[in-house]
Design goal:
The complex is a heterodimer of chains A (639) and B (198).
Chain A (H helix, E strand, L loop, with lengths): L5 E3 L4 H29 L15 H10 L7 H22 L11 H5 L7 H15 L9 H22 L1 H10 L11 E5 H4 L4 H29 L7 H12 L9 H9 L2 H6 L5 H12 L7 H8 L1 H14 L3 H16 L7 H4 L6 H6 L5 H4 L4 H8 L4 H13 L2 E10 L13 E9 L11 H4 L5 H5 L3 H4 L20 E7 L4 E2 L4 E3 L11 H6 L5 E7 L9 E11 L7 E9 L20 H9 L14 H7 L2 H8 L8
Parallel strand pairs in A: 1-2
Antiparallel strand pairs in A: 3-4, 4-8, 5-6, 5-7, 5-9, 9-10
Chain B lengths: L1 H15 L3 H31 L8 H11 L6 H35 L4 H28 L4 H34 L3 E2 L5 E2 L6
Helix pairs in contact in B: 3-4, 4-5, 4-6
Classes of the chains: A alpha+beta (639), B mainly alpha (198).
Chain lengths: 639, 198
């Protein structure tokens, strides 16, 4: 035997090696697949979900086609093949005999004594054996047998020496053999038939293809994908398009749903999806969708299905460019696409099922809340519904669309009583979800608004938000895919009315209030309070003072009254403990906020609205230059 | 035994390799690398050529060039006016680029825009700097020492135009908003709200 590497000649090692690799990779995958299969079966119904099935058969087909099959996936195929080959390998191992090449040298075994026998006993035992096995004592043997018996006797002597003589014993202990170090052999767990003989060029070719072809291909395709798609998942060209549109946007022109749709229609995603379609044709697909034109073409469904990700990208860009108008309108456009409703003032009613569009347009009623103050007959007349059963469906949807009501909004620094300078803060927004059927005020006790400051909440103040239940699937029968919508919060600075934060998306909120009756809602004891926390990325200003912000919270899927409220960041140094003043005065009667609140006959919001007198201070901070910057728009070209 | 045979075989193969083999190997590798680098540079230059400008056509600049190079030369006042227009446009673009700089940088850091756009932005900034230098040089031709007065003048023109655009857009904005809110104007100029209860 030489010291070179030897391959697996008897196919003993490589099956075991392959088996262990397969088992190590397959077991985690299998556990994951099994747990997935079990978790998906017990999906609990979410409170407030609208279960009405009004989906057009063609959209249904489109949706089910898009849903990947749960059983016939590549992963499952891999798992199945993996287990099959494991079975085959185990069978292969079980039928091959294990031939040990180097027999282990065990002196105790050779002498036939038990491990740990004393030297004295061994000596006497060896004496007995030598009498029995000494070659000179053996007679009447053939040449062959003689040779064998001699060999055996040599072994016996070696074993004896290994246990009694000093040097041999040392050798045995160090190298496992009385003769000293043995030849070392290194095996590679590759079957021999691959290395030698006809298949060796095949293996070489396989290596070349793997290293020279497959590996570079995957790396380059991964790289080009990161190059062609941004982190937000939109095409780089589309990102360029949006940036150009925002850069060349003229503030004097009003952005409307059609403006946003025109921008979207130029996206590269559509050029890839429909190489033969012009921008106008794609825009027309959007229009057909908004106007619920039948028959629905497959292209239309495909085009509309990818709009949410594009709009999310556009909102991201618009917010980065601090453009409030475009950000707002992008969210509005998303609503229009989700509900398939054209631009109109009656969107809240048009999103309901079974309504007659032309009749609704002629009515004076705009709001859902107003609609639900009417009697059933009047509602039928307003919406153009004739059937009682259909009316029930419509009302079911109308009462289950969540409407947000602001309870309290304030800036908070985790672990502090006041908003301290130069610290990370967030806007804590407390809302009550109500149905359109709920009217009037609700009584919310103070302790429902309180958050306990524990070590956990200090470390992660957003825990409370994430612990809320997920929102149910939205009622969007005309949208090509099932949607789980949510709310988006846009925060802007009052002094220049521009967005300061990237938009915050919320998909967790309890809708349990939708099931309350009007009395329960008014009483307020069963009303649950939801929480949004809008992170503020930049630290609070170093200077003490009051800074005015405006927050708009919009539903991404339903037309409802959006929340739009002012919040004041009152930056002050942390008070000394004995001087803490928790009282926040109500707005002064002579201030604008107070007057508005009185006129509405509302209780004054618990937003700290007490700083109108200080507005002027911050207005002065505006430099002329800053103001002009925004005015200089690209219009000279007249295009 | 089999091992010995294979070693002999490989020894035979090695003895067959000629002197040209390494030379051929090196030439093939080098040619491949050279071809790649030539192509890569060519593509890069082509990409630079085909890079879309950030802004749309610069009409005042084109106009100024046309007037300056036309034969016979127009009145100097006309040329100065064209230069002022060109300068005002350049100021507008410079301000715009400066204004969006933090947005572009933030977006680039977030990974929302690709390298291409960021490079385009930087090219646009450089081009605008060159344009300003060119305008300054041009100004010097008309009258030495005009610059200190010339630049504030450009700024004023730029801001004035911005204000004017805003002012003239008011009427269009009004009509657009009325359309969006479905409000009509009656013959005697009174707004008719469609959803208002009488």
């Amino acid at each position: 035997m030489d010291s070179r590497y030897n391959y697996d000649e008897h196919s003993q090692t490589w099956p075991v090696f392959t088996l262990s690799v397969l088992v190590v990779t397959l077991i985690p995958f299998t556990i994951q697949a099994v747990s997935n299969a079990f978790s998906s079966t017990k999906e609990e119904p979410i409170v407030g979900e609208i279960k009405l099935d009004k989906v057009d058969s063609q959209i249904k087909k489109f949706r089910s086609n898009r849903k990947p099959s749960k059983i016939f996936t590549k992963k499952n195929l891999f798992i199945l093949l993996g287990w099959l080959s494991i079975g085959a390998l185990i069978y292969h191992i079980s039928i091959t005999e294990v031939k040990t090449q180097v027999s282990a040298f065990d002196p105790y075994d050779l002498l036939g004594v038990e491990y740990g026998t004393s030297e004295k006993d061994i000596k006497s035992h060896f004496r007995k054996l030598s009498i029995k096995f000494h070659p000179d004592k053996q007679r009447n043997l053939s040449e062959d047998e003689k040779l064998k018996s001699e060999e055996h006797f040599v072994l016996l002597t070696k074993a004896y020496k290994a246990l009694t003589e000093e040097t041999t014993r040392e050798n045995y202990e160090k190298y496992g053999h009385p003769d000293g170090p043995q030849q070392a052999s290194h095996g590679i767990a590759l079957p021999k038939f691959l290395i030698e003989g006809k298949s060796s060029p095949l293996l070489l070719a396989l290596y070349i293809v793997l290293i020279g072809g497959v590996l570079p291909y995957f790396v380059s395709s991964w790289w080009s994908k990161t190059k062609t798609y941004t982190k937000k998942g939109i095409h780089v060209e589309t990102a360029n398009l949006f940036v150009e549109k925002l850069l060349n946007h003229k503030p004097s022109i009003i952005v409307r749903v059609d403006t946003i749709l025109t921008w979207l229609s130029e996206a590269t995603e559509f050029k890839i999806l429909f190489p033969n379609k012009s921008n106008e044709e794609i825009f027309q697909l959007f229009q057909n969708h908004l106007n619920r034109k039948t028959p629905i073409s497959d292209d239309q469904l495909k085009a509309v299905a990818i709009t949410p990700s594009l709009i999310a990208g556009l909102i991201d860009f618009a917010a980065s460019f601090r453009n409030t108008e475009i950000s707002n309108m992008a969210v509005e456009t998303l609503k229009h696409l989700v509900q398939a409703v054209p631009e109109s003032t009656k969107n809240e009613l048009l999103q309901l099922p079974n309504v007659d569009q032309t009749i609704v347009q002629e009515q004076k009623i705009v709001r859902l809340g107003k609609l639900l103050t009417l009697g059933n007959e009047e509602i039928k007349k307003t919406l153009g519904i004739k059937d009682d059963l259909k009316l029930k469906e419509t009302l079911d949807v109308a009462t289950n669309i969540p409407i947000l009501k602001l309870i309290k909004a304030e800036f908070k620094v985790p672990g502090e009583v006041v908003v301290t300078p130069e610290s990370t803060c967030y806007i804590s927004v407390k809302v009550v979800v109500k149905s359109a059927k709920h009217h009037g005020e609700t009584q919310i006790s103070e302790d429902k608004l309180k958050e306990n400051d524990t070590l956990e909440t200090l470390r992660d103040p957003y825990q409370i938000v994430n612990a809320q239940p997920s929102l149910p699937k939205s009622f969007a029968p005309f949208f090509p895919t099932e949607r789980r919508g949510g709310f988006v919060a846009l925060t802007s600075l009052q002094k220049d009315t521009k967005i300061t934060e990237s938009p915050a998306f919320f998909q967790k909120l309890s809708l349990s209030n939708l099931e309350l009756t009007q009395e329960q809602y008014k009483d307020g004891s069963k009303v649950s309070v939801g929480t949004f926390k809008i992170p503020i990325t930049s630290p609070t200003p170093a200077q003490e003072g009051k800074y005015q912000f405006r927050v708009v919270i919009k539903s991404t899927d339903y037309f409802t009254q959006d929340l739009d409220f002012p919040v004041i960041m009152h930056v002050q140094n942390p008070p000394r403990l004995e001087e803490v003043n928790y009282d926040i005065p109500d707005p002064d009667e002579d201030s604008l906020a107070g007057a508005v609140a009185q006129m509405k006959g509302e209780k004054v919001k618990r937003v700290d609205d007490d700083s109108d007198d200080e507005d002027s201070e911050f207005e002065e901070e505006l430099s002329d230059f800053e103001d002009i910057n925004t005015d200089t728009e690209d219009e000279a070209e007249g295009n | 035994m089999a091992d010995n045979q294979t070693t002999e075989q490989t020894e035979q193969v090695i003895s067959k390799i000629s002197v040209f083999t390494p030379i051929i190997y090196v030439t093939v590798v080098l040619t491949a690398l050279v071809v790649f680098s030539i192509n890569y540079r060519k593509n890069k230059i082509n990409a630079l050529y085909n890079r879309q400008p950030f802004f749309k056509r610069n009409l005042p600049k084109e106009l100024h060039f046309e007037l300056r190079d036309s034969d016979p030369k127009p009145n100097e006042k006309v040329l100065k006016a064209a230069l002022l227009r060109r300068g005002a446009e350049s100021i507008r673009r410079t301000i715009k680029l400066k204004e969006v700089q933090p947005f572009i940088t933030a977006l680039y850091q977030k990974g929302s825009i690709g390298d291409d756009l960021y490079e385009r932005y930087q090219t646009a900034t450089k081009l605008e700097e060159l344009e300003v230098q060119e305008i300054v040089a041009e100004t010097e031709k008309y009258k030495a020492g005009w610059i200190p007065k010339f630049v504030p003048l450009l700024q004023e023109i730029c801001f004035n135009e911005a204000l004017r655009r805003r002012y003239s857009a008011i009427e269009d904005r009004k009509l657009d908003l009325l359309d969006q809110w479905e409000i009509k104007i009656s013959k005697d100029g009174i707004l008719e709200f469609p959803n208002k209860e009488k």
